[in-house]
Design a protein that fits this description.
Response regulator; Rossmann fold; five-stranded parallel sheet; phosphoprotein; 45% helix; 7 helices; alpha/beta; CheY-like_superfamily
């Protein structure tokens, strides 16, 4: 749902987001530089969340693509080389669990092994266990700390190398 400028426009949101993260780098900057040129797909049906995560990750040098549905995300994954996925669990039509299961069954070995974080408002043990069983490597809840998100991505990448 995009709003036009007469309704507050997304540009205003971006300015607020950019200002709200000034001087808020993670205290533990362990290998945060590893996000340089990292190709990330963020999947969420909430536009504000997509903008927020995009601004955070681009500030650390990542190249971010976004999708607002599992179907759109699956097309991006088929068509582009990606290094990392951040996927919301609760989305209309198809949820994040289903999306990650489809990704994990792809024939392309590189694509089916793309590391993924579930980023969701669901904060239950059952949801967390299902996320790991479905194929996610990490699970973070909303609202999230921008530094924690960046550090979790960096730690995972460092551990894989």
């Amino acid at each position: 749902m995009k709003r036009n400028d007469s309704q507050g426009g997304l540009a205003g949101v971006s300015i607020i987001v950019l200002k709200s993260f000034d001087n808020q780098r993670p205290e533990d900057s362990t290998n945060v530089k590893t996000l340089n040129n990292l190709r990330v797909l963020v999947v969420d049906d909430n536009i504000d969340t997509l903008i927020l995560i995009t601004v955070i990750l681009e500030d650390y040098g990542a190249k971010v693509m976004t999708a607002t549905s599992a179907r759109e995300a699956f097309e991006v994954i088929r068509d582009f080389e990606l290094d990392f996925l951040i996927i919301d669990i609760v989305m209309p039509q198809e949820d994040g669990y289903s999306l990650i299961c489809k990704i994990r069954t792809l024939d392309n070995t590189q694509k089916k092994q793309i590391p993924a974080i579930a980023l969701t408002a669901i904060d239950t043990d059952e949801a967390r266990q299902l996320a790991f069983k479905s194929g996610f490597q990490n699970y973070l809840t909303k609202p999230f700390d921008n530094g924690e998100l960046v550090i979790e991505i960096a730690k995972f990448l460092v551990n894989c190398n």
